[in-house]
Amino acid sequence: MANLTLPTTLATPKWLAGLPGAGSLPELLEQALNSPAHRERWKYTKPAPFVAATQRPMIDPDISGKTQSGVELNQSIDGPLEGFDLNQAPEAIARLCYADRVMTLDVSASTDEPVVINHTGNTRPVIIRVGVGVNLTLLENAKAIDDAQQSIWIDLAPNARVQHSRNTLDNAPSHWQYLSVRLQAGAQYQLNNHVAGCGSRRQDIHIIMDGRGAEATLVSAGKVDGKMALDQQVTLEHRQPRGQSKQTVHNIVANGGKCTFNGRIHIHEGAAGTDAQLSNKNLGMGEHATINTKPELEIYTDDVSCSHGATVGTISQDALFYLTSRGIDRTAAEALLSQGFLRQCIVGPLADQALTALVGGAREQS
Amino acid sequence: MTLLKVSNLHASVLTSDGAQPILKGLTLEVKAGEVHAIMGPNGSGKSTLANVLSGRPGYTVDSGTASLDGQALLELEPFERAQLGLFLAFQRPIEIPGVSNMEFLKASIDSLARARGEEQPNTASFMKQVRELAGSLDLDPAFLKRGVNEGFSGGEKKRNEVMQLLLLQPKLALLDETDSGLDIDALKVVANGINSFRSADSGVLLITHYQRLLDFIVPDFVHVLSNGQIIESGDKSLALELEAKGYAWLT
Known about the structure:
In chain A, 16% of the residues lie in helices and 40% in strands.
């Protein structure tokens, strides 16, 4: 396999100079891009076009809710956030270097209204810093019609709480979303992720439990129908004791779609009392669906509770018989069952829009 | 008027060792207004009869016929049988997370209405009716928002089956061990529900292991199924005799 190279020479922004070894950042990034671990992360999606696109011109995302008190846009960046990880995400760091500027969003007080980020194309990287004890509802929509990339870093100060809902339902030819979240002690983070396949969609999610007693929840529903692709790479690192994480990821792959899920849980030495759970369920429908799923565990401490599981299946014949025995025809019963499978993972303030796009109708109120 | 007519039915269950014949020439007729109880030892074919009549996958009909209200059943898809008026109360109801009970019931009643050329009920009156039925069966109406049978106790699942029976108003109800796993209070609630379904136009085929249910739902006929055939038929007193003597004296 040919080596991956960055498109042109990178200029390292001053504030990134504090990264370990950043004096030779371009070289380090090239090394990281070609490391075996990185190759493994890009095993099912060709990385070269995504790496090449990291230098494409960027626009600002539309951000609403930014005028609320306690919300400040584009403050200066003193240095790299804890958790910036060259080896985990060299392409994302490269985007920070190629960007003419990086956006920041500092939230120092709990807000009444959500902060909404709409990406209408290839947007500048966003760094979100959430203050001590602050509650934030963050909504994010990706609506690009052309090739696009987005990269977001969120840092939760101690006891901050972020409810993050993200709809990625557009039909871009290719799309890459990088999301890194770091939780300090007692912080709570939930991501409600709703995603449709596109020409080639890649979602990288890196959650770092970097303080005692942090809690993270990932709930994700995806649908990949027709000649579409989705590649989800989730890494959840428990670096400190007594963290809790729960991931539930349901994907429907239909009619020639291709879906990859890689969920890695890494429990560091000293992260005693960690409780980490991961469940990935895939439902194949129609002809020629391709599903790759790999839950991974790396545990370097005793006294942890950890469960992970992945299933690939088709619609349950027992459930289908139950519905059809009540007079519901087979096609309608299959639709109900596949919708039900996804609905279990469609939650939060962006659920209605996601339901319409992914299952074809909002939930009937009862 | 004959509702259900089963003639010389032979059927097999598909297992990893191949097809195992279970029903070996079963003949049965249920007229409108009648309740028939089918009793018999484990493995005699009681549940197979219910499953074959309702079209569950995993069974093959080797020979014989079955009709509902004069229409041949055995070639039809399960949903077509339901649309003709057949209802199976499951021995082990299926859990379906993500599909709410209310949504499931509405889809069902709408499908049945469409098939019969009737108007679909409006949502508000439908929901009111469902809530009332749930109340009459001691089911917390909150369950309607939950996934179908999701996290229900065994007793709640059985009561949910009876609630569907009362809502869908089929011509013929096949009740497959609807009494199993119920305590005496739940048994009475379920029996009351089934009794309220009884009418001059509908029929009930009640499959049970125990005479106990028949104290609450008095059958017009009791049949003993053994080795895939009905070997004895009688009235309610046959069930009492079975209770006293077991099946051995017949088989």
